[in-house]
């Protein structure tokens, strides 16, 4: 196992237990549906001579569905960071437009920005998800669980959930609408909603 130079990282344990389970089996338990897709990417990346895990592949789900996909795969921190970034971008964009005296951005700017964000998510989603899965495996093994008990805990923590994906996506859409209303009230005042 490569030496971890991060002094803040959790202590590393060997990912093969006395019962013979391997990191692959633990990851498979955590990932659940479509585990072959992620594990094939992971195994291809693991052959890097420097020992770095640079997972390739383009995740089409993350490209098109962003927060819905993040919720589906239970990437709560990534989803929170993404939502924070997008809401901040909304506020900065509106402030710049307000200062410049422009009512709206050009539709091509919106298209280009959203396309760039989607491409960024699609390129990085697999790496983020596998890093999350490996951290969860490490956390469960550090707790002392091994074998079937560890696999059961990983299945409980991981997998995919359409319900969470839809719920997180709808929560994000609600936050965008509410944030937009608050930004308009801040910059334009309540008259923006009262004038016919």
Radius of gyration: 21 Å
List low-pLDDT spans. Answer: 8-18
In terms of DSSP E residues, the strand content is: under 5%
Major sheet? none
Structural class: mainly alpha
Tally of individual helices: 9
DSSP E strands, number: 0
- Give the helices and strands as they follow along the chain: HHHHHHHHH
Overall 3D geometry?
elongated
Cα end-to-end separation:
67 Å
Q: How much helix is in the residues?
A: 55-70%
Integer average pLDDT: 85
Keywords for this structure?
mainly alpha, 9 helices, elongated, 196 residues, 69% helix
Written account of the structure:
With 196 residues, this protein is an all-alpha fold. It contains nine helices and no strands. It is elongated and about 70 Å long. 19% of the residues are buried. The model is unreliable at 8-18 (pLDDT under 50).
Element layout with pairings:
Blueprint: H1 23-31, H2 35-46, H3 60-65, H4 67-72, H5 76-100, H6 107-142, H7 147-157, H8 162-188, H9 191-194
Helix pairs in contact: 1-2, 1-6, 1-7, 5-8, 6-7
Can I get a quick summary?
The protein is mainly α and 196 residues long.
